[in-house]
Amino acid sequence: MPLQDPLSPAKHLRKPDWLKTKIGANSFTYGHTRDVIREHSLHTICASGRCPNQGECWSRGTASFMIGGEICTRACRFCNTHSGKPLPLDPQEPENIAKSILAMGLKHAVITSVDRDDLCDGGSHHWASTLRAIHKLSPSTTCEALIPDFRGDKKALDCIIEARADIISHNMETVRRLTPSVRNVATYEGSLDVLRYIASKGVVTKTGLMVGLGETFEEVVELLEDVVATGTSIITIGQYLRPTRAHLPVEAYITPTQFAQYKEIALEKGFQYVESGPLVRSSYHAEEHLSGYRTLSQKEVSYSKNSIRMSELGKLTNE
Question: Is 171 part of any domain?
Fold first, then answer.
Protein backbone atom coordinates (compact mmCIF):
# COMPACT_ATOMS: atom_id res chain seq x y z
CA MET A 1 0.00 0.00 0.00
CA PRO A 2 1.49 3.39 -0.98
CA LEU A 3 2.52 5.64 1.87
CA GLN A 4 0.65 8.79 2.75
CA ASP A 5 2.15 12.03 1.44
CA PRO A 6 5.09 13.25 3.57
CA LEU A 7 5.29 16.73 5.02
CA SER A 8 6.63 18.72 2.07
CA PRO A 9 8.37 20.95 1.18
CA ALA A 10 10.28 20.44 4.42
CA LYS A 11 12.59 23.44 3.92
CA HIS A 12 9.58 25.66 4.80
CA LEU A 13 8.68 23.67 7.92
CA ARG A 14 10.01 23.45 11.42
CA LYS A 15 11.74 20.25 12.41
CA PRO A 16 9.01 17.92 13.78
CA ASP A 17 8.96 17.04 17.48
CA TRP A 18 9.90 13.44 16.73
CA LEU A 19 13.30 14.63 15.49
CA LYS A 20 14.21 16.58 18.61
CA THR A 21 16.89 14.91 20.73
CA LYS A 22 18.73 15.56 23.96
CA ILE A 23 21.95 14.35 25.57
CA GLY A 24 21.40 11.14 27.51
CA ALA A 25 20.98 11.23 31.27
CA ASN A 26 24.17 9.30 32.05
CA SER A 27 26.57 12.24 31.77
CA PHE A 28 29.43 10.34 33.49
CA THR A 29 29.46 7.70 30.74
CA TYR A 30 29.19 10.42 28.09
CA GLY A 31 32.23 12.16 29.57
CA HIS A 32 34.19 8.92 29.83
CA THR A 33 33.50 8.10 26.17
CA ARG A 34 34.57 11.60 25.12
CA ASP A 35 37.73 11.42 27.23
CA VAL A 36 38.83 8.04 25.85
CA ILE A 37 38.37 9.30 22.28
CA ARG A 38 40.37 12.45 23.02
CA GLU A 39 43.10 10.57 24.88
CA HIS A 40 43.87 8.47 21.81
CA SER A 41 43.37 11.35 19.32
CA LEU A 42 40.65 9.47 17.45
CA HIS A 43 37.92 10.58 15.07
CA THR A 44 34.28 9.51 15.17
CA ILE A 45 31.56 9.73 12.57
CA CYS A 46 29.32 10.74 15.47
CA ALA A 47 31.06 14.12 15.67
CA SER A 48 32.15 14.67 12.06
CA GLY A 49 28.74 13.67 10.71
CA ARG A 50 26.85 15.73 13.32
CA CYS A 51 24.80 12.67 14.23
CA PRO A 52 21.62 13.50 16.20
CA ASN A 53 22.15 10.39 18.32
CA GLN A 54 25.62 11.28 19.59
CA GLY A 55 24.35 12.17 23.06
CA GLU A 56 22.39 8.96 23.47
CA CYS A 57 25.11 6.69 22.10
CA TRP A 58 28.01 8.26 24.00
CA SER A 59 25.93 8.14 27.18
CA ARG A 60 25.53 4.40 26.58
CA GLY A 61 29.30 4.07 26.16
CA THR A 62 29.22 3.42 22.41
CA ALA A 63 30.74 5.29 19.49
CA SER A 64 31.46 4.74 15.79
CA PHE A 65 35.16 5.20 15.07
CA MET A 66 36.31 6.76 11.80
CA ILE A 67 39.72 5.68 10.50
CA GLY A 68 41.93 6.99 7.70
CA GLY A 69 41.88 10.56 8.96
CA GLU A 70 39.10 13.15 8.92
CA ILE A 71 39.49 14.45 5.36
CA CYS A 72 37.65 12.61 2.57
CA THR A 73 38.72 12.56 -1.07
CA ARG A 74 35.07 12.80 -2.12
CA ALA A 75 32.45 15.50 -1.59
CA CYS A 76 29.03 13.87 -1.28
CA ARG A 77 26.36 16.53 -0.97
CA PHE A 78 24.70 15.00 2.10
CA CYS A 79 27.83 14.42 4.18
CA ASN A 80 29.39 16.80 6.70
CA THR A 81 32.85 15.17 6.66
CA HIS A 82 35.50 17.57 5.33
CA SER A 83 36.72 16.92 1.78
CA GLY A 84 40.11 17.70 0.28
CA LYS A 85 43.62 16.28 0.29
CA PRO A 86 44.03 13.85 3.20
CA LEU A 87 47.07 13.56 5.43
CA PRO A 88 49.17 10.36 5.41
CA LEU A 89 47.70 7.44 7.34
CA ASP A 90 48.56 7.25 11.03
CA PRO A 91 50.36 3.92 11.61
CA GLN A 92 49.41 4.07 15.32
CA GLU A 93 45.71 4.42 14.60
CA PRO A 94 44.82 0.69 14.49
CA GLU A 95 46.35 0.09 17.93
CA ASN A 96 44.83 3.28 19.36
CA ILE A 97 41.39 2.24 18.13
CA ALA A 98 41.80 -1.18 19.74
CA LYS A 99 43.00 0.36 23.03
CA SER A 100 40.00 2.69 23.10
CA ILE A 101 37.58 -0.16 22.51
CA LEU A 102 39.20 -2.12 25.33
CA ALA A 103 39.10 0.91 27.67
CA MET A 104 35.42 1.49 26.89
CA GLY A 105 34.59 -2.19 27.36
CA LEU A 106 32.68 -2.36 24.09
CA LYS A 107 30.91 -5.60 23.25
CA HIS A 108 30.36 -4.39 19.69
CA ALA A 109 32.43 -1.84 17.75
CA VAL A 110 31.57 -0.01 14.54
CA ILE A 111 34.46 1.14 12.37
CA THR A 112 34.00 3.37 9.34
CA SER A 113 36.31 5.54 7.26
CA VAL A 114 36.61 8.41 4.89
CA ASP A 115 37.16 7.57 1.22
CA ARG A 116 40.87 7.39 0.44
CA ASP A 117 40.92 7.41 -3.35
CA ASP A 118 44.43 8.87 -3.09
CA LEU A 119 45.77 5.48 -1.95
CA CYS A 120 46.36 2.62 -4.37
CA ASP A 121 44.52 0.18 -2.10
CA GLY A 122 41.90 2.70 -0.97
CA GLY A 123 43.11 2.22 2.59
CA SER A 124 42.02 -1.43 2.74
CA HIS A 125 45.22 -2.66 4.38
CA HIS A 126 44.85 0.02 7.05
CA TRP A 127 41.32 -1.27 7.54
CA ALA A 128 42.58 -4.84 7.92
CA SER A 129 45.25 -3.76 10.41
CA THR A 130 42.60 -2.04 12.51
CA LEU A 131 40.29 -5.05 12.57
CA ARG A 132 43.14 -7.40 13.48
CA ALA A 133 44.30 -5.08 16.27
CA ILE A 134 40.79 -5.12 17.74
CA HIS A 135 40.60 -8.92 17.56
CA LYS A 136 43.97 -9.16 19.31
CA LEU A 137 43.37 -6.70 22.17
CA SER A 138 39.64 -7.28 22.65
CA PRO A 139 38.82 -10.72 21.22
CA SER A 140 35.32 -10.81 22.69
CA THR A 141 34.30 -7.61 20.87
CA THR A 142 32.33 -8.13 17.68
CA CYS A 143 33.22 -5.76 14.82
CA GLU A 144 31.18 -4.07 12.14
CA ALA A 145 33.06 -2.59 9.20
CA LEU A 146 31.08 0.21 7.52
CA ILE A 147 33.12 0.54 4.36
CA PRO A 148 33.31 2.80 1.28
CA ASP A 149 33.01 1.27 -2.19
CA PHE A 150 36.79 1.13 -2.88
CA ARG A 151 35.76 1.87 -6.49
CA GLY A 152 34.65 -1.75 -6.71
CA ASP A 153 38.18 -3.13 -6.20
CA LYS A 154 37.70 -6.80 -5.28
CA LYS A 155 41.22 -7.11 -3.86
CA ALA A 156 40.46 -4.30 -1.42
CA LEU A 157 37.20 -5.96 -0.43
CA ASP A 158 38.94 -9.32 0.02
CA CYS A 159 41.50 -7.66 2.28
CA ILE A 160 38.75 -6.57 4.67
CA ILE A 161 36.79 -9.81 4.41
CA GLU A 162 39.91 -11.79 5.32
CA ALA A 163 40.36 -9.62 8.44
CA ARG A 164 37.17 -11.25 9.75
CA ALA A 165 34.73 -8.47 10.46
CA ASP A 166 31.56 -9.97 11.95
CA ILE A 167 29.42 -7.80 9.73
CA ILE A 168 30.32 -5.66 6.72
CA SER A 169 28.17 -2.68 5.81
CA HIS A 170 28.11 -0.50 2.74
CA ASN A 171 25.43 2.15 2.41
CA MET A 172 23.29 2.67 -0.67
CA GLU A 173 22.36 6.08 0.84
CA THR A 174 19.60 6.93 -1.66
CA VAL A 175 17.51 5.64 -4.55
CA ARG A 176 18.73 5.09 -8.10
CA ARG A 177 17.44 8.37 -9.61
CA LEU A 178 18.94 10.57 -6.90
CA THR A 179 22.32 8.86 -6.59
CA PRO A 180 24.17 11.06 -9.15
CA SER A 181 23.08 14.27 -7.39
CA VAL A 182 23.59 12.98 -3.83
CA ARG A 183 26.78 10.91 -3.97
CA ASN A 184 30.13 11.92 -5.38
CA VAL A 185 31.87 9.24 -7.53
CA ALA A 186 29.87 6.30 -6.11
CA THR A 187 27.17 4.76 -8.32
CA TYR A 188 23.96 2.89 -7.56
CA GLU A 189 24.97 -0.23 -9.49
CA GLY A 190 28.49 -0.06 -8.08
CA SER A 191 27.17 -0.17 -4.53
CA LEU A 192 24.89 -3.09 -5.38
CA ASP A 193 27.94 -4.92 -6.75
CA VAL A 194 29.86 -4.30 -3.51
CA LEU A 195 27.00 -5.69 -1.43
CA ARG A 196 26.58 -8.66 -3.77
CA TYR A 197 30.28 -9.53 -3.57
CA ILE A 198 30.42 -9.32 0.22
CA ALA A 199 27.29 -11.45 0.63
CA SER A 200 28.66 -14.04 -1.82
CA LYS A 201 31.57 -14.60 0.58
CA GLY A 202 29.20 -15.68 3.34
CA VAL A 203 29.64 -12.51 5.41
CA VAL A 204 26.65 -10.92 7.16
CA THR A 205 25.92 -7.92 4.92
CA LYS A 206 24.16 -4.67 5.77
CA THR A 207 23.23 -1.40 4.07
CA GLY A 208 21.64 1.94 4.92
CA LEU A 209 19.14 4.27 3.24
CA MET A 210 18.31 7.93 3.87
CA VAL A 211 14.82 9.17 3.03
CA GLY A 212 13.46 12.69 2.74
CA LEU A 213 15.63 13.66 -0.24
CA GLY A 214 12.77 13.69 -2.72
CA GLU A 215 12.47 9.97 -3.43
CA THR A 216 9.09 8.41 -4.21
CA PHE A 217 7.45 5.41 -2.56
CA GLU A 218 7.96 3.35 -5.71
CA GLU A 219 11.66 4.21 -5.79
CA VAL A 220 12.14 3.06 -2.20
CA VAL A 221 10.42 -0.23 -2.99
CA GLU A 222 12.66 -0.64 -6.05
CA LEU A 223 15.75 -0.11 -3.90
CA LEU A 224 14.55 -2.65 -1.32
CA GLU A 225 14.04 -5.21 -4.09
CA ASP A 226 17.41 -4.46 -5.69
CA VAL A 227 19.29 -4.72 -2.39
CA VAL A 228 17.65 -7.86 -1.03
CA ALA A 229 18.46 -9.56 -4.36
CA THR A 230 22.18 -9.09 -3.59
CA GLY A 231 21.91 -11.28 -0.50
CA THR A 232 22.05 -8.37 1.94
CA SER A 233 20.34 -9.33 5.21
CA ILE A 234 20.11 -6.09 7.20
CA ILE A 235 18.98 -2.57 6.30
CA THR A 236 18.64 0.68 8.23
CA ILE A 237 16.27 3.43 7.06
CA GLY A 238 16.44 6.93 8.54
CA GLN A 239 15.55 10.56 7.93
CA TYR A 240 18.05 12.71 6.03
CA LEU A 241 18.94 15.81 8.03
CA ARG A 242 20.77 18.71 6.41
CA PRO A 243 24.11 19.28 8.20
CA THR A 244 24.57 22.87 6.96
CA ARG A 245 23.08 25.25 4.39
CA ALA A 246 25.83 24.19 2.00
CA HIS A 247 24.34 20.69 1.80
CA LEU A 248 21.29 19.32 0.02
CA PRO A 249 18.02 20.57 1.51
CA VAL A 250 15.56 18.21 3.15
CA GLU A 251 12.65 17.72 0.76
CA ALA A 252 10.31 15.95 3.19
CA TYR A 253 10.07 14.91 6.82
CA ILE A 254 8.94 11.30 6.88
CA THR A 255 6.57 10.41 9.71
CA PRO A 256 7.17 7.60 12.24
CA THR A 257 4.13 5.82 10.80
CA GLN A 258 5.69 5.84 7.36
CA PHE A 259 8.95 4.47 8.73
CA ALA A 260 6.99 1.63 10.31
CA GLN A 261 5.43 0.93 6.91
CA TYR A 262 8.84 0.92 5.25
CA LYS A 263 10.01 -1.63 7.84
CA GLU A 264 7.02 -3.85 7.14
CA ILE A 265 7.65 -3.70 3.39
CA ALA A 266 11.38 -4.43 3.81
CA LEU A 267 10.63 -7.52 5.91
CA GLU A 268 8.07 -8.67 3.34
CA LYS A 269 10.72 -8.31 0.62
CA GLY A 270 13.03 -10.67 2.50
CA PHE A 271 15.34 -8.66 4.77
CA GLN A 272 16.06 -10.54 7.97
CA TYR A 273 16.54 -7.49 10.19
CA VAL A 274 15.29 -3.93 9.67
CA GLU A 275 15.85 -0.79 11.75
CA SER A 276 13.59 1.99 10.47
CA GLY A 277 12.81 5.31 12.13
CA PRO A 278 13.37 9.08 11.90
CA LEU A 279 16.58 9.07 13.97
CA VAL A 280 17.96 5.78 12.71
CA ARG A 281 21.50 5.90 11.34
CA SER A 282 23.72 3.10 10.03
CA SER A 283 25.45 2.66 13.38
CA TYR A 284 22.44 3.37 15.61
CA HIS A 285 21.89 0.38 17.93
CA ALA A 286 24.31 -1.51 15.69
CA GLU A 287 25.00 -4.13 18.35
CA GLU A 288 21.31 -5.06 18.20
CA HIS A 289 21.43 -5.48 14.42
CA LEU A 290 23.98 -8.29 14.64
CA SER A 291 22.49 -9.99 17.69
CA GLY A 292 18.99 -9.70 16.23
CA TYR A 293 20.15 -11.17 12.93
CA ARG A 294 21.88 -14.07 14.67
CA THR A 295 18.82 -14.80 16.80
CA LEU A 296 16.58 -14.90 13.75
CA SER A 297 19.08 -17.06 11.85
CA GLN A 298 19.22 -19.58 14.71
CA LYS A 299 15.43 -19.73 14.80
CA GLU A 300 15.36 -20.38 11.04
CA VAL A 301 17.92 -23.18 11.39
CA SER A 302 15.93 -24.70 14.25
CA TYR A 303 12.70 -24.44 12.25
CA SER A 304 14.40 -25.99 9.21
CA LYS A 305 15.70 -28.93 11.26
CA ASN A 306 12.27 -29.50 12.81
CA SER A 307 10.69 -29.40 9.36
CA ILE A 308 13.14 -32.04 8.12
CA ARG A 309 12.42 -34.25 11.13
CA MET A 310 8.67 -33.93 10.58
CA SER A 311 9.14 -34.77 6.91
CA GLU A 312 11.21 -37.86 7.75
CA LEU A 313 8.65 -38.92 10.36
CA GLY A 314 5.92 -38.58 7.78
CA LYS A 315 7.81 -40.82 5.37
CA LEU A 316 8.28 -43.50 8.05
CA THR A 317 4.58 -43.33 8.94
CA ASN A 318 3.60 -43.74 5.31
CA GLU A 319 5.91 -46.73 4.96
Answer: yes
